[in-house]
Amino acid sequence: GNNFATVGAKLRAVIDGTPDANDLPTALVFSTALGASADDLAEKMRISPAGDLHISDGGGIVVGHTAQVNVAGAPAELQVLGTGDGVDSGVTVAAFNTTNSVRPTITLLKSGNATVGSNTIVADGEVLGEILWNGADGNNFATVGAKLRAVIDGTPDANDLPTALVFFTALGSSADDLAEKMRISPAGDLHISDGGGIVIGHTAQVNIAGLAELQVLGTSAADSTFSIGNWNTTNSEQPVINMLKSGNATIGSNTIVADGENLGAINWIGDDSNNYATVGARIQATIDGTPDVNDLPTALKFFTALGAAQDDLAEKWRITPLGALTSVA
Predict the structure, then answer these.
(1) What is the spatial distance between Cα 141 and Cα 79, in angstroms, rounded to a whole number?
(2) pLDDT reported for residue 180
(3) Residue range 37-47: average pLDDT?
């Protein structure tokens, strides 16, 4: 409405390197005007002499649609959008090579420096990257249903990044209840969060006198068995199952147990046509005396159910701390 001098878009060829005879390293530079203010024409994209495609900060690439979609905050700078399954809403990274060690790679990098390309070591607790699974919740696309995170778990150093893989899922019982459920530590230990569990042989926990956090379920002897093996040339080495009871309600804290306190039990349970809670037999370890440091006087108690009445499990025999076998029935 004023003149014809305002430029809305521009394509420029610019020397990008050291030219020589028959050698003109040239970049193609694409500029557009956002229109948010006067004369705001600026470079938005560049094709380098090597053929690399550079997108300016704040811009992005959208494949499969005409505009960015806001998913969980600011629109991501690379989006693949579509309405089909895997074809027009999928990403493929492929390697074709005769060398076995050559493989496709997706890399997530985090630096402690705010300048792109600068190197500042990351810190303990710093998140190196995440993969998020979002779903439309009827309001927006920001709600995360599951997340895989890599986080520094220890003191990093040159060529040394102690890292844990952390798995999050949302229970869906309240808004935004995404929480850590499982962690693989830098040492390779598998940690399951309180309230979660491991089920082998089935797709869900089964209530067997409560929901145990470790279950091995199956329909034959082979797939409802667990084994602990030890291979060693030292005779004193052997497989071990430990049951620990502390008088403290904080995991890892130490409070001495008391006389009469149960250290653990093994139950034999059968289906009684109503549930899986009825115990037919039990072996139980119970403190039987005054415990002290490195001194736990313990009795082994043997229970069986007579079956003459409901829930008639009772102690029948006991091995005392002195080793005496005593009939309790």
Answers:
(1) 14
(2) 95
(3) 90
C-alpha atoms less than 13 angstroms from C-alpha of 89 in its C-beta half-sphere:
6
How far is the C-alpha of 59 from the C-alpha of 31, rounded, in Å? Answer: 12
The SS3 assignment for 280 reads strand
Per the CB < 8 A criterion, the answer to whether 248 and 261 are in contact is no
Of 200, 197, 233, the closest CA to residue 216 belongs to 200
What pLDDT score was predicted for residue 157? 97
Of residues 102, 69, 101, the one with CA closest to residue 83: 69
List of residues 6+ apart from 234 with CB closer than 8 A: none
The answer for 221, left when phi > 0, alpha when psi is -120 to 50, beta otherwise, is alpha
Q: Whose structure tokens read 């080495």?
A: 237
H or E element, residue 28: strand 26-33
* pLDDT, mean of residues 299-313: 92
Q: Tell me the C-alpha to C-alpha distance, in Å, between residue 179 and each of 99, 163, 166, 172.
A: 41, 19, 10, 11
Q: Check: CB of residue 53 under 8 Å from CB of residue 33.
A: no
Tokens of 142: 């920001």
Residue 190 tokens read as 């598998």
CA 144 to chain centre: 14
> Is residue 254 pLDDT above 80, yes or no?
yes
**CA–CA gap between residue 64 and residue 89 (Å, rounded):** 8
Give CA–CA dist 42/231, Å, rounded: 69
Cβ contact 297:319 at 8 Å: no
Give me 281's structure tokens: 């037999």
Q: Which residues contact 287 (CB under 8 A, 6 or more apart)?
A: 257, 258, 259, 260, 261, 262, 263, 296, 297, 298, 299
Q: Please state the φ and ψ torsions of residue 198, each to the nearest 5 degrees.
A: -120, 125
- CA pair distance 189, 12, nearest whole angstrom: 56
Tell me if 145 sits within 8 A of 134, measured CB to CB: yes
E strand map for 4-40: 9-15, 26-33
CA 185, CA 187: separation in Å to the nearest integer? Answer: 5
User: 100 phi and psi, to 5 degrees?
Assistant: -60, -30
